[in-house]
């Protein structure tokens, strides 16, 4: 070992100090512990696929160059074994005295630690026990790992550490890597499903002068170039509708939204949504399309419409048709008394009090009925269910119901005890839309931090004529939570957390 020791290493844990000293020694010997590249010729997965049925104790004569991180190793006298993993799979490597020579084998034993990245050149073989392996005739350190990996059996057991150090979680937790794959597959399936149906994918602004498209509290920021206060997007809805006005009759966006409303196991301030709009469709048409897209996403992520739901819950098949129930009908069944849009507010309040459900004096009857649904019904709906026909007062962007003027043509998709998405027959009447947004702006002026603002440019767009349109928003994070039984911190790669 080198006599030159950096005193700054004294404060490091022993394993990190030893690795830093190895790093110094390698550099003194003229070895670059972080070379620019390595001549990789194939992936580990490709090697496994090509030689899946190779008999035990067989040499192929095929020489490959592979790379990977050292996850396990056993050091012997004349023969060492290691398991390395690249982004596709694991494979065993064998390093022997007669293939490498004494100097190279000794360097492996002295220089390589768990977690190091290495490049291996050698023949594809199987061991006497039939394990597919690479018999190395040369090796290269491609990146030195200066921190020890978590202990094999304990892993990264602290949930908080898994969130804060997602890179380590992914290194040691196969389930976390699988979540990334499933999320990617689900998003791709949603995108492909819309593309196949003639939808155009677009991007709309994240920085907005007027926030709208949902009732939510926005984040605020400031642009120095224009000396303007701006909002981070809470929804892309009003911009996507502008595009429908402009003649893009089938349009969608997979977007990041931001809502300043707290964080818990089901909410992250930054989240991913799919929104899509179709001219000459209504909320019934959009429900059918939403079901088809989500079922397709499940097949892409899990191989079928049967989703696993985690270790403690039964699998659920989300194939076939999904139930449709009305909001007021569901609340009536839960209360044991019929409640309609015309039931007096005082009576609904008494029904809430009889179930010990708190309510705000500012709420109208429709808002209170929605709250009763959330408290009494939502958590009971495991099978995906379209809950339809919401109160007019709580749906400022939705078309009035064709049969009941106190309702709107809106559904929420509830499944696995949570809201997964929402769909509308869109309000396209610019005069009525102005009236409703004016009401919202008055609520905002009165201190309601979630109320929408009056967006004059959006109203001007509607005045050019928007065709009858159906629209849908689906929460991607929620969808993965529902499919897997995991919380939002496990389905989002880098959730926002408090400073350590």
TrEMBL record:
A single BP term in Gene Ontology: lysyl-tRNA aminoacylation
Localization in the cell: Cytoplasm
Annotated signal sequence range: none
Co-factor binding details: Binds 3 Mg(2+) ions per subunit.
UniProt keyword terms in alphabetical order: Aminoacyl-tRNA synthetase, ATP-binding, Cytoplasm, Ligase, Magnesium, Metal-binding, Nucleotide-binding, Protein biosynthesis
Catalyzed reaction equations: tRNA(Lys) + L-lysine + ATP = L-lysyl-tRNA(Lys) + AMP + diphosphate
Chain residues that bind Mg(2+) 2: 419
Broadest EC class assigned to this enzyme: ligase
E.C. numbers: 6.1.1.6
Top-level taxonomic group: Bacteria
Annotated positions binding Mg(2+) 1: 412, 419
CC annotations in GO: cytosol
Gene3D superfamilies, alphabetized: Bira Bifunctional Protein, Domain 2, Nucleic acid-binding proteins
Family: Belongs to the class-II aminoacyl-tRNA synthetase family.
Oligomeric form and interacting partners: Homodimer.
Protein name in UniProt: Lysine--tRNA ligase
């Amino acid at each position: 070992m080198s006599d030159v020791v950096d005193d700054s290493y004294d404060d490091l844990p022993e394993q990190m100090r030893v690795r830093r000293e190895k790093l110094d020694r390698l550099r003194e010997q003229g070895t670059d512990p972080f070379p620019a590249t390595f001549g990789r010729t194939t992936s580990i997965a490709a090697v496994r696929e090509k030689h899946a049925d190779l008999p035990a104790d067989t040499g192929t004569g095929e020489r490959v160059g592979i790379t990977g991180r050292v996850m396990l190793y056993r050091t012997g006298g004349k023969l060492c074994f290691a398991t390395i993993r690249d982004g596709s799979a694991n494979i065993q490597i064998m390093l022997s005295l007669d293939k490498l020579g004494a100097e190279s084998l000794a360097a492996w034993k002295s220089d390589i630690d768990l977690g190091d990245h290495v490049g291996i050149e050698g023949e594809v073989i199987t061991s006497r026990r039939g394990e597919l392996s690479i018999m190395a005739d040369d090796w290269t350190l491609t990146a030195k790992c200066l921190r020890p990996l978590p202990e094999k059996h304990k892993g990264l057991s602290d949930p908080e550490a898994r969130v804060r150090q997602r890179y380590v979680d992914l290194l040691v937790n196969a389930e976390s890597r699988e979540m990334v794959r499933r999320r990617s597959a689900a998003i791709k399936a949603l995108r492909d499903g819309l593309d196949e149906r003639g939808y155009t994918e677009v991007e709309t602004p994240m920085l907005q002068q007027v926030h709208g498209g949902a009732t939510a509290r926005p984040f605020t920021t400031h642009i120095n170039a224009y000396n303007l206060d701006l909002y981070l997007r809470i929804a892309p809805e009003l911009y996507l509708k502008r595009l429908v006005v402009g003649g893009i009759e089938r349009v969608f966006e997979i977007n990041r939204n931001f809502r300043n409303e707290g964080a818990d196991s089901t909410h992250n301030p930054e989240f991913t949504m799919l929104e899509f709009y179709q001219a000459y469709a209504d909320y019934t048409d959009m429900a059918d399309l939403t079901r088809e897209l989500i079922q397709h996403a499940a097949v892409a992520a899990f191989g079928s419409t049967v989703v696993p739901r985690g270790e403690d819950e039964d699998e659920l098949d989300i194939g076939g048709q999904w139930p449709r129930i009305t909001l007021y009908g569901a609340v009536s069944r839960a209360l044991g008394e019929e409640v309609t849009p015309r039931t007096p507010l005082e009576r609904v309040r008494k029904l809430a009090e009889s179930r010990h459900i708190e309510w705000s004096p500012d709420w109208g009857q429709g808002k209170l009925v929605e709250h009763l649904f959330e408290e009494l019904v939502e958590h009971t709906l495991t099978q995906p269910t379209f809950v339809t026909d919401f109160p007019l007062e709580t749906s400022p962007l939705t078309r009035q119901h064709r049969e009941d003027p106190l309702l709107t043509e809106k559904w929420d998709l509830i499944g696995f005890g949570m809201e997964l998405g929402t769909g509308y027959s869109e309000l396209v009447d610019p005069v009525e839309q102005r009236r409703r947004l004016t009401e919202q702006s008055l609520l905002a002026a009165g201190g309601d931090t979630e109320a929408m603002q009056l967006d004059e440019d959006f109203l001007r767009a509607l005045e050019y004529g928007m065709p009858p349109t159906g629209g849908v928003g689906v929460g991607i994070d929620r969808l993965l939570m529902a499919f897997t039984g995991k919380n939002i911190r496990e389905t989002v790669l880098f959730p926002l957390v408090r400073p350590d």
